[in-house]
Amino acid sequence: MYVGAVEEPRRARKKRLTRERIVSAAIRLFDQHGYDDVTVAQVAEAADVDTKTFFNYFRTKADVLFNELDLELDVLLAAVADRRPEESPGEVLRRAVQEYDAHRRPHIPRREPAELSAAARLALTTPALQAKWVYLQLDVQRRVIAELLKAFPGELDPITAAAMTGSVFGAIQQASLTSAQLGLSQDELWEAATLALDIAAHGLLPARRPNQGQQGT
């Protein structure tokens, strides 16, 4: 018997679209007028919602830009905790990131390159957003490090666990930000993140982009 795809419930779809509308309106206004000069009321008006609705979705103005950062982070932590006997710490990190990416990617709204670029520009140039970005990134890494140490009791020291985690997540973050700044598509951004994971997992020396070195042959 054929079973079709489960249709998104109407209420869930309405909530998702409202959230996406608020995010898009906020990024557009922040980019045009500056983050500090835009109020929550202005974002709400541009998204055609009231301020109460805004705060039903986001605690603060800054949360709008980082609303997808910790999307179902427990999936990532559970994947690290699910260490397989034959896996090394690096292999655990790589598999966990791959599983997390496969789980969350279908739930991330599609965004145009201009919007991705604007969001990256805001995160990198606005002091309040820079601080929020650094805090969230460090918090994610701290939680992953703790889970990695629990997965390898007596086998992995805190400094090595921190260095490995920082290498993986730092590579992914920088590749993603650079892709957004270059105006690449969302699919290209994800490809860059995958490349970054491979570089972090396999080491720097053999790293090269696909088809690199074939020019002029």
UniProtKB/TrEMBL annotation:
DNA-binding segment(s): 39-58
InterPro entries per record: Homeodomain-like_sf, HTH-type_TetR-like_transc_reg, HTH_TetR
Claim: Transcription regulation is one of the keywords in the record: yes
Domain called HTH tetR-type: residue spans: 16-76
Pfam families: TetR_N
SUPFAM superfamilies per record: Homeodomain-like
Origin superkingdom: Bacteria
Name of the protein in question: TetR family transcriptional regulator
Source organism of this protein record: Asanoa ferruginea
Lineage: Bacteria, Bacillati, Actinomycetota, Actinomycetes, Micromonosporales
